[in-house]
Design brief:
This protein has 3 helices and 12 strands; from the N terminus they run ββαββββαββββαββ. With 121 residues, the protein is mainly β. The chain has a two-stranded antiparallel ribbon. A two-stranded antiparallel ribbon has the order 3-4. The protein has a two-stranded antiparallel ribbon with strand order 5-6. 7% of the residues are buried.
Length: 121
């Protein structure tokens, strides 16, 4: 059968490890030997194509699997979160909080300042 070689005893068959002998067609990611064959697996952040050979980057921003509170930028194998104008990124790297321009004195108002979400009036 395919994926096996006849043993020197002429009676039993041994699995061919296509991953070790280089006969697999997996792209740059991982080859996993199976009994009589092999499968291609992708590294974290990639998904296996319908051809079951190639791997492509998962766009967490487009598919909604990110946890950003405001903006998301896809990167190879991951994503980064960002904040809209008037917000500041928290130390967790995903949460944005409103900047209180009135309290921190960056409002430029000469009289009364009222903080609003992402801005001030």
């Amino acid at each position: 059968n395919n994926g096996y070689l006849l043993d020197v005893n002429g009676k039993s068959c041994n699995d061919i490890d296509e991953c070790s002998d280089g006969t697999h067609v997996c792209t740059i990611h991982t080859c996993m030997n199976t009994d009589g064959s092999y499968t291609c697996e992708c590294n974290t952040g990639y998904s296996l194509g319908t051809d079951e050979i190639t791997c492509s980057d998962v766009d967490e921003c487009s598919n909604g699997t990110h946890d950003c509170s405001q903006t998301c930028t896809n990167t190879i194998t991951s994503y980064t979160c960002g904040c809209n104008t008037g917000y500041l990124m928290e130390t967790d790297g995903i949460t944005c909080s409103d900047i209180d321009e009135c309290s921190d004195g960056t409002d430029g108002c000469s009289q009364i300042c009222t903080n609003t979400n992402g801005s001030f009036i």
